[in-house]
Amino acid sequence: MQYENDILLRLLQGEQVERPPIWIMRQAGRILPEYREIRASLSGFKALVSNPDMASTVTIQPIDALGVDAAIIFSDILVIPEAMGLDYELIEKRGPFFHKTIENKDDVDKLVQGADAADNLSYVYEAVEMTVDKLNGRVPLIGFAGAPWTLMCYMVEGSGSKTFYKTKSFLHKYPELSHALLEKLTQTIIAYLKKKISYGLEVVQVFDSWAGVLDQKMYSEFCIPYLKRINEAITEVPVILFSKGAWFSMDDIYALNSDVIGLDWTMNPKHMREKYGNERIFQGNMDPTVLFASKEVITNKTRETIQAFGTKHIFNLGHGVYPETPLENVKHFVQEVRNFRY
Amino acid sequence: MQYENDILLRLLQGEQVERPPIWIMRQAGRILPEYREIRASLSGFKALVSNPDMASTVTIQPIDALGVDAAIIFSDILVIPEAMGLDYELIEKRGPFFHKTIENKDDVDKLVQGADAADNLSYVYEAVEMTVDKLNGRVPLIGFAGAPWTLMCYMVEGSGSKTFYKTKSFLHKYPELSHALLEKLTQTIIAYLKKKISYGLEVVQVFDSWAGVLDQKMYSEFCIPYLKRINEAITEVPVILFSKGAWFSMDDIYALNSDVIGLDWTMNPKHMREKYGNERIFQGNMDPTVLFASKEVITNKTRETIQAFGTKHIFNLGHGVYPETPLENVKHFVQEVRNFRY
Fold first, then answer.
1. ipTM of the complex
2. Which CATH number characterizes residue A196's domain?
């Protein structure tokens, strides 16, 4: 498909582009007043995620409001655990809460997996279809899934956590059962991503948000093999792997050969290029708190980041944009990237 | 002073010891039933911290209960902000909460600092004195302070946070004011540690618990200079610097030349030795969730850690022990370290 703004796809196809394409993690969200308005009209975050018309509406909002080069479908990584049989609710200011968690083999055995689980997510496919329709060829649409480890974190812990110590303990106590769960998740993620792609996604990102609570050895045993499977299974579109906090496994992640590697703000772009060369596309990685500073600081830091990464770069923040970020600063940031020329 | 068990001090004095000395972050705490009993008899955590008799009692509990090689005074890093004029309360299951936070120059100017602030902490000095008395020469006593950056995090954010985005934004928005606040904190920390040492501490540890939310450049600008000042000012006893999550600044931290560097579990001991040689004492760094696994796993991982660090090593976990850890596993872990011979 042809897009009015195809700079992201041109970069992904290996073309030399004139500036980095930009999108922002959580660009469809609370930084936008038009999002907050829709969100307030519904009973909760989950009502928005499961309403294809509303989800597609908020997905396209940042295209006009911010001028980003791609849309990312508004959804939640926890739709997969739910589709596998673990309901959750989102408690205001507390985050996700699972009434039932994974504790033993029986719990893992009961989970629906693969295409059967993916089939439970028709509201997402419908949202993708409606979004593609509403975008009408303006920019490409990105889809995403949580990585197996990150989804396992919520399914075992039952909620968010600073340490995810229950889930990490689960790995130490029940390594085989952990692998069984991660396997089921992997099959479901692949089926889900493939089905979403068939409705019109051009790129997918896998979020391993809780990578950083592990270490190199644990990540290599419980995460890398599953990321490898997902990356190899998704042949239809480019794959972005974003393992937040996994500095210790960067060699292993690099070796997976994904089209793009997402980087958090702790990774130094210059060091990454020195170590890994100039061929791989990196995505990231400005600290989102820079967007609370003056426009001058934002401009300087934006240019510094572009120059350090070189031309194989998708600009993004190193983490989702914080909801409290001044909107005019986000707009300024996007404009600075769009006005840049290599 | 002479101690019955002086293995920690012998290592710190450069002696070749027969096994790594061991203590555990949060060893005086909820893993021990005798701690929970005392804690339940008081109105809250702060009541315990500010009661020298009770604080000294819980400080020495793990010496008998676990057989660790050092005591660490039971206290809280937030006594310093309080002594500087910012009251806080600890809300059950939510953590610290400051009614007033630092927002502008006036707030920073109003803070009491240095010896004047340190003088407000007589209950801590009394607890140190009573603990030394109760220990009666069995093991040495460690004291601690939060690092300037970590204390600033709570003073600006007003509570715990996963991201400390307000405090990081504060650094970007008000770099000079941030330095003024960090300077006041540094002076207070130095005065406080020196005074505590005079009551009988043999070692001090500086905790930079939120180092990991920054990056190398920010850490080098807003943290390293103050850690350097503290490390150089404390000449009376050995200093352990523990900057959790600051993998990106390890070269800068190493260059500070502290007697000991504390490491979290993400740092690979073998890589640390390859990079920095065998002379510096490292402290750490087993993942605390290993202690939820079988005794066999604990034994193997403990020995692996000792062998990887070599003989300049204080055994500790890479983070505080989690309160839910099975006590028998903690005991087994300590015994394994104590039974080891190089």
1. 0.95
2. 3.20.20.210
